[in-house]
């Protein structure tokens, strides 16, 4: 996540947008489409099940090819995070990464 945050900044993502990730559902920095993608990513990262209501929300904003790409990207990042944890790879100090509060999953 730390590297992705630094790369996002290089691509023009603002500090305000990065800080707003902790409360993306109510943050004005994000569109409804972005909120759907973020909710999808959060549930995939935190759970083994995906509520149909959330998948329907994602389908409202993304076509099938985009959903496949979004899912591949999310699961790749989950895999990379688990890899780093397993090998106890620590953050490199590229950027400050906020601690995200635990949130309830959408049902």
Describe the secondary-structure layout:
Blueprint: H1 2-10, H2 15-20, H3 32-46, H4 52-61, H5 64-86
Description:
The chain has helices at residues 2-10, 15-20, 32-46, 52-61, 64-86. Mean pLDDT is 82; it is low at 102-107. The protein has 107 residues and is mainly alpha-helical. Helix 3 packs antiparallel against helix 4. The two termini are 26 Å apart. The longest helix has 23 residues, at 64-86. Helix content is 59%, strand content 0%. It is built from 5 helices and no strands. It has one domain: Up-down Bundle (AhpD-like), CATH 1.20.1290.10.
* Number of β-strand runs: 0
Structural class, from helix and strand content?
Answer: mainly alpha
Count of domains: 1
Radius of gyration, whole Å? 14 Å
How many strands, which pairing sense, and closed or not: the largest β-sheet? Answer: none
Topology as H/E string?
HHHHH
The low-pLDDT segments are 102-107
- The number of helical runs is 5
Mean pLDDT: 82
Identify the CATH architecture: Up-down Bundle
Relative helix content: 55-70%
At the first level of CATH, what is the class? Answer: Mainly Alpha
